[in-house]
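Reopening this ticket.

The earlier resolution said the output was attached, but the attachment link was broken on my side. Pasting everything inline this time so it's all in one place.
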Amino acid sequence: MKKIFLSLCILFLIQKNFSQTLEKMIWFNEPDKWDIKNNTLSMVVTPQSDYWRISHYGFTVDDAPFYYTMYGGEFEAKVKITGNYKTRFDQAGLMLRIDKENYIKAGVEFVDGKYNLSTVVTHKTSDWSVITLDKTPPPVWIKAVRRLDAVEIFYSFDDNKYTMMRNAHLQDNSPVMVGLMAACPDGNGFTAAFEYFKVKHLADERRLKWLENNK
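Inline output:
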């Protein structure tokens, strides 16, 4: 009976901590309206906000909502995203950020009347890559896998089959802000929702290789 009781206590603590994951996170550029319910973050995205540095447009902005937690080492992060995108460049997704000059954001972005799977990689200056979708997407899952000095970005429409959309450099051995980002550069705001956000620790590949070579 004692073992059963201890097992139930551990299960309760695990479930309790998981359910509180979103509540324990931190805002960078907190929007005026947001809430957390049933493990889902919903927000009205701040108008005239974005993340971009210098290249092509010649300006730098760093003022969009970002709800994050800190992680070190190697990890996998994923989230389910929905949004009522309506104005050019409306976007929502995951962001991994070391500082204002080094970050990756990836998700759905509405451009010229079409929906895109979009990734912006910034190392002092920003670049942008897109995969244009033929129709309005259902909710999209975005997954980021950080391994050593690289991040692989994947998308899925069912949380089962994932397709890679980008492989990008991100400095390793540095703590990373990992979380939920949305931006509305041109418009007056829109609503976005983020469900089932989860970050899973991955064992360090260098250490695994060392152990394999030094049995």
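Reporter confirms the inline version is readable. The first helix runs from residue 2 to 19. The two ends are 40 Å apart (CA to CA).
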